[in-house]
Specification:
Keywords: Metal-binding, Nickel, Zinc. It is built from two helices and six strands, in the order H-E-H-E-E-E-E-E. The chain is α+β, with helices and mostly antiparallel strands. The chain has a domain of 78 residues: 2-Layer Sandwich (hypothetical protein PF0899 fold), CATH 3.30.2320. It has a three-stranded mixed beta sheet, covered by helices on one side. The protein has a three-stranded antiparallel beta sheet with strand order 4-3-5, with no helix packed on it. Helix 1 crosses helix 2. The radius of gyration is 17 Å and the shape is elongated. 22% of the residues are buried.
Amino acid sequence: MHEMSLAESVLQIVEDTAAQQGFKRVTEVRLEIGALSGVEVEALCFCMDVVFKGSVADGARVELERLPGQGWCLGCGESVEIQALYDPCPKCGSYQVQATGGTEMRVKDMLVE
């Protein structure tokens, strides 16, 4: 399950930021997760609950912002929204669509005390 390693990476970002900026507790972590990222959101939330125990983020609320999948169609030259990697272009039906957005996962920001 790669969501556990993703949760551990998020905690590392939170702890590194806490050490650099000197805050003691994180009350909320906001993540951006793209529709094409391959992240299983429910599994990630479960893993974050487990990983955050005993850390500066213990009990922190996790807010998720889902980003749509975006692609560039080589067939019609249009930027289109796609639901999954390797989906055909919704405008022309071409399978030559290159993902341009929605593949990312990042810590957007956090609320701290």
